[in-house]
Amino acid sequence: MKPAVEPVLQFRPHHFFCTLGYEGKGYSEAFVTRFSSLANRLRAHPSGDEVVLEVTLFSDSICEPCPNRRGARCDTHSKITALDEAHAEVLGLKHGDRITWAEAKTRLRERMTVEAHHSACAPCGWKSLGVCEKALLQLKTENVGTIQPRTGQ
């Protein structure tokens, strides 16, 4: 019997970096539950490194339960598009690319500088928490572990 093939996860360009810095906060309880599950799946070693992610410029696997999602788009479409364009440029990604989580971490480690982070993430409302910069610096020196979801602020 063949082992079950896991479905490919859809990822917007900015969600590669968001997943690295994610610490269990989000827009709703359902969103936090979903994002925590995906982040922990990717952070599980070594199996998480093998998960294939397909780049999309529309709603992705993380967006599914987001209260700001409207079909394939977001209420804040122009802001999200700016985040995606900036991250795609820094990470060398385009719509339809398929890479593993291990490859994504390598791109983040090698291409995302602190300066590029401040520029690419400028429109992000979560940036002021500092968790993404902290995770980037940690990635450049060691592995990122699993997280426990925290609901509310």
Give an account of the 3D structure.
With 153 residues, the chain is mainly alpha-helical. The protein has one domain (9-129). Helix content is 43%, strand content 9%. It has 6 helices and 5 strands. The strands form 2 sheets. A 3-stranded mixed β-sheet has the order 1-2-5. Helix 1 crosses helix 6. The longest helix has 15 residues, at 29-43. It is globular. The mean pLDDT is 88.
Low-confidence stretches: none
Number of domains: 1
- Give the CA-based shape: globular
Output the radius of gyration.
15 Å
- What fraction of the residues are assigned to beta strands by DSSP? 5-15%
Helix content: 40-55%
Structural class: mainly alpha
**Biggest sheet record:** 3 strands, mixed
Write the SSE topology.
Elements (H helix, E strand, L loop, with lengths): L8 E3 L1 H9 L7 H15 L8 E4 L13 E2 L2 E2 L2 H15 L6 E3 H11 L2 H7 L10 H9 L14
Parallel strand pairs: 1-2
Antiparallel strand pairs: 2-5, 3-4
Keywords summarizing the entry:
153 residues, mainly alpha, two-stranded antiparallel sheet, 43% helix
Short description:
This protein has 153 residues and is mainly alpha-helical. The chain has helices at residues 13-21, 29-43, 77-91, 101-111, 114-120, 131-139, and strands spanning 9-11, 52-55, 69-70, 73-74, 98-100.
